[in-house]
Amino acid sequence: MQTEDRINIDIFKVVTRAIAESHHLEIMAKHLAQLLVGALEIKGVTIFATNVETKELEDLGSFGLSIRYMNKGPIHINRSIKSVEKHKAVVVKDVKNSDLLEYAADAIQEGIGAIVSVPIDFSGRVIGLLRLYHHDQWDISERDLDSLFVLAEIIGLAMMYARMNNAIHDVKDIVGDVHEAWLE
Amino acid sequence: MDAQKLLLPYNFSPNDQKTLAFVIRTFGSQENIEVTIFHAFTPLSEIEASDHQSATAKLKRRLSYLTQELTEREMALQEVRQHLIGQGFHRDNVRYVFKSRKGEISAAIIEQTKEHDYDVIVLNHKPGKVTRFFTGSVFTKVVTALRDITVCIVS
After folding, report:
1. Looking at residue B77, which CATH number applies to its domain?
2. 0.85 surpassed by complex ipTM
3. What top-level class would CATH report for the domain A9-183?
4. Beta bridge partners of A62
5. CA distance A166 to chain B (A)
6. How do the pLDDT tens digits run along chain B, 155 residues long?
7. Does B69 touch chain A (CB under 8 A)?
8. What residue ranges do the domains of chain A occupy?
9. Burial level of A130, CB count in 10 A (0-12/13-18/19+)?
10. Strands (E) located in chain B
11. Structural domains of chain B, count
12. Residue B32 distance to chain A (closest CA, Å)
């Protein structure tokens, strides 16, 4: 059981720089996951996007988890780590003694002891989740949880920026496909 | 007759398994087919750390231990190759490419295709994915960028 603060300003600088310097959201998500795993000495990290149509979580970037675990099945918004509410983190301190998980047996087989799930909000909506997996039981400190909320907000901004950027490129491609003959 | 060269981008997802099954079903009986299984991975994050005692320096040292995931991925790619061989593809005609990429996955696939002059590329496409809004569609980018190649889409 560990309750000491692990996220200091140095770590925060590194992970926010990874966000700011990435040109592609997928690579940003992957690097962020790698850095959080390294900095917090945890098992894995996944950044999910929420799909409101299918009511599932989609993996945007992940690090530290096995292929088998990543392919365990669809992750349903309402069943995965139950009681997910807007703006609230869910801390599963001990996976073996929790009824919150959709794939509890898979998590135990993967060697996951604890999970922290932080919503990624944008403009009042949950557009994703930042999920951290620890090998052991984990009593994350309030300060670290606050830091993860700030990080999740930055990720939310990066996601929406990437979405707008993609839209602009799509428009550019469509306009670029218009032959000059149509404009005469 | 020259062998047909087929590129199979693979990212270990259930959709990729469907694509693999399609390749076995459709091309498994052909003798003149060369299959390249392709996975381009994101390299470990590069962080600068001049002070050896700083948290970032410690983090950098720890990141070097995190190459285990890449090893697991490469082994899984080798298993996919073995699976194809087990399904009747000739050993000499199945290879895999496991390489680092700095940009988008679509750019890596396009570069690989153009450099090695493939005849066929097999992609998968899952409609309705929300991550496409954020990262762009690999399927769309690859299909619109390539010329003179047969593109098979497994949906």
Report:
1. 3.40.50.620
2. no
3. alpha beta
4. A46
5. 6
6. 678 999 999 999 999 999 999 999 999 988 899 999 999 998 887 776 555 556 566 666 776 666 788 888 999 999 999 999 999 999 999 999 999 998 889 999 999 999 999 999 999 988 888 888 888 888 888 998 999 999 999 98
7. yes
8. 9-183
9. buried
10. 4-9, 33-41, 94-100, 120-124, 150-154
11. 1
12. 32
- Residue B128 contacts A where some CB pair is shorter than 8 Å: yes
Considering only CA atoms, which of A71, A176, A69 is closest in space to residue A115? A69
**Chain A window 49-68: which residues touch B at a Cβ cutoff of 8 Å?**
49-54, 58-60, 63-64, 66-67
C-alpha–C-alpha distance, residues A49 and B126, integer Å: 15
Contact A70, B11 (CB under 8 A): no
- What three-state secondary structure class fits B8? strand
Q: Which structural domain range is residue B138 located in?
A: 4-154
The verdict on B134 touching A (C-beta cutoff 8 Å) is yes
Q: Which residues pair with B153 in a beta bridge?
A: B123
What is the pTM for the complete model shown?
0.88
